[in-house]
Amino acid sequence: MAKILLPLLAILSLLPMVPAWAALVLGILLALAFGNPYAALTKPLTPKLLAWSVVGLGAGMNLVEVGKVGLQGFAYTAVGIAFALGVGLYLGRRLGVAGATSMLISVGTAICGGSAIAAVAPVIHAGDEDTSVALATVFLLNALALILFPVIGHYFHMAERPFGLWAALAIHDTSSVVAAGAAFGPVAELVATSTKLARALWIVPVAFGVGMLHVRLRGQSAAELRPKAKRPWFILGFLLAAALVTFVPGLKTAGHVVNEIAHRLLVLTLFLLGCGITREALKKVGARPLIQGVALWFIVATATLGAILWGWIA
Q1: Distance CA 224, CA 194 (A)
Q2: pTM
Q3: Is residue 238 part of a domain?
Q4: Model confidence over 138-177: pLDDT tens digits?
């Protein structure tokens, strides 16, 4: 059944009338009910689709506006990352969550979900179980955020710009940040995407810093540190695409087409991400890591929302 349903639903997710949250939920339900018979194909394909989707989204944006938004969000990003890491590690200690798992959940919440977890896991020598628990925890909250954030934003009558900023600062993965912003409006999408991509640039320095701390705490030599943090090349692609349509007016129409295709690829990516969740991963999560992830996410989301509504972040 899954061998037939998965390709059909993947094609369905490309249709304009299918919202991002619905594609994600469909993927999760399909995976939990029947499993993913194409996991060997979809697992490596998903991050590639996400990267190219982000590059394509740049073709629909103005580079000047992107740069302005990214610079404005730099300070919020630095403070937000430090705050999330500090609170996350404190919660992990109080709850008795294993050190590696606690660090990965904290980093995933602080920067950009699964990408940050994948980058930091090798430098702290995290085991497969630590990584899978952190990924499952962050993924579940990421899926929930995609559904809840637009509803909360409308409830508080948020304008598009502050909503986009909130989404970028409080939702884990880039895919859901972009999707939530797009669901709220074009300005929200621009702000959310630009701010989130600026945040993703912190993956490499944070991974290196965490690795150095790990080496020091374990009493190893610095030579044993081999950071394997993946560089987010898609950010450069996003900026280049935005530059082309901004400074070459003749490409604007083509850029609009590429942007629309990228939006549909993003929805397909969310569907495939949903298909990646497994019952085994959910069983591994356990209560304490999930409590840590939920508590940290709630604190970060409410703190940033309050700061935005009160005008501390603009």
Answers
A1: 35
A2: 0.78
A3: yes
A4: 888 888 888 899 999 999 999 999 999 999 999 988 888 9
